[in-house]
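TA notes, week 10

Several of you asked for a full example with nothing omitted. So below is the full record: structure tokens for the whole chain, then the designed sequence directly under it. When grading your own attempts, check the secondary structure regions first.
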């Protein structure tokens, strides 16, 4: 006796967000069903992989993670070009690590020159992350925003208690924004409301739900992302933003990825990425090119209806 599968149709849809200049823009979001359930809805834009680079040479990455980039890892502009020209990166995520007070608090002029050079010499859409120090980021991110005006970058991150400066500068310079929340649906929604109350178009907001690596609470992260996504499909427009997840940063700080060799590290990043893609991630920031390539192949295969 054949079994008829239950299919659910939803009225809501995830916002489509464009990142980058009009001639090089990429799109994320737009789906009307949970990931890859093509008989229940549309998934017009496949999950997208961004390569993460720092504005300085990393001092805590294991050797097997830095190896593929060779000496270019000491020069952010060369590093960015290797990601695009050698590994086919469609999007770059630049983290301004050197601006953090614990990493020397470098003056802003040099990272600004680096960002402009990366933008001009690669041409791909940029995600720019601050240093992670709120006070420092409130000083430097407006300068970053102005330097990249009209490039339609994705800048981060705006949190519940620190969003006004970044939202105002993104609004003025035509950028999209990352709304950060501590893996909590209600706080995620609240941050989106606070940003949109400043006049920000909700179709320029991307949510960062704070995720994890494989083995560190993935089931909980998965359930929270899925709850937010289902609420959006049921009509909650303040949760209808695409997700960005920082898979590389989460994976490569675990001992499982750092201390047990190249193969396990790469597999840890792949498995973490695939898990979060199945949870609904739209933009996946990764570090090892072999892991990124494998995940890209996985996305291409599973998007074949």
């Amino acid at each position: 006796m054949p079994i008829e599968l239950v299919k659910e149709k939803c009225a809501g849809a995830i916002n489509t967000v464009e990142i980058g200049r009009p001639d090089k823009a990429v799109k994320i979001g737009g789906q009307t069903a949970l990931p890859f359930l093509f008989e229940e809805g549309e998934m017009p834009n496949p999950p997208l992989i961004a390569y993460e680079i720092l504005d300085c040479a990393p001092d805590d990455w294991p050797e097997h993670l830095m190896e593929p980039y060779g000496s270019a890892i000491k020069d952010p502009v060369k590093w960015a070009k290797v990601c695009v020209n050698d590994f086919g990166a469609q999007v770059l995520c630049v983290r301004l690590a050197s601006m953090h007070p614990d990493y020397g608090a470098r003056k802003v002029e040099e990272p600004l020159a680096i960002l402009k050079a990366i933008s001009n010499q690669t041409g791909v859409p940029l995600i720019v992350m601050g240093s992670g120090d709120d006070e420092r980021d409130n000083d430097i991110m407006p300068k970053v925003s102005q330097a990249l005006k009209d490039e339609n970058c994705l800048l981060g991150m705006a949190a519940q208690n620190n969003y006004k400066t970044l939202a105002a500068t993104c609004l003025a310079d035509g950028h999209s924004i990352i709304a950060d929340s501590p893996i909590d649906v209600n706080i995620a929604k609240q941050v989106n409301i606070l940003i949109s109350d400043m006049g920000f178009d909700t179709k320029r907001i991307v949510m960062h739900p704070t995720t994890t690596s494989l083995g560190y609470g993935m089931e909980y992260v998965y359930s929270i992302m899925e709850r937010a996504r289902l609420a959006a499909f049921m009509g909650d427009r303040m949760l209808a933003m695409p997700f960005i997840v920082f898979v590389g940063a989460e994976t490569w700080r675990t001992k499982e990825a750092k201390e047990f060799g190249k193969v396990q590290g790469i597999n840890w990043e792949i498995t973490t990425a695939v898990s979060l893609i199945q949870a609904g991630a739209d933009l996946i920031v990764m570090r090892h090119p072999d892991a990124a390539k494998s995940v890209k192949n996985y996305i291409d295969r599973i998007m074949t209806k």
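The first strand starts at residue 16 and ends at 19. Use that as a sanity check on your answer.
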